Amino acid sequence: MSKDKIMILSSGDILVEKGIISIESKLLEMLDQTEHDLYIMMYTVSSKPDNFWTKLEELLMKKIGVHFTLESSVKHSNKAIEILKKLDRYDNFNLYFHSGDSPLHAKLIVSDGKRAILGSANISGGGLVQNHEIAVYIEGDKAWTLKNIAKRLIKNL
Question: What per-residue confidence (pLDDT) applies to 2?
Answer without folding.
Answer: 65
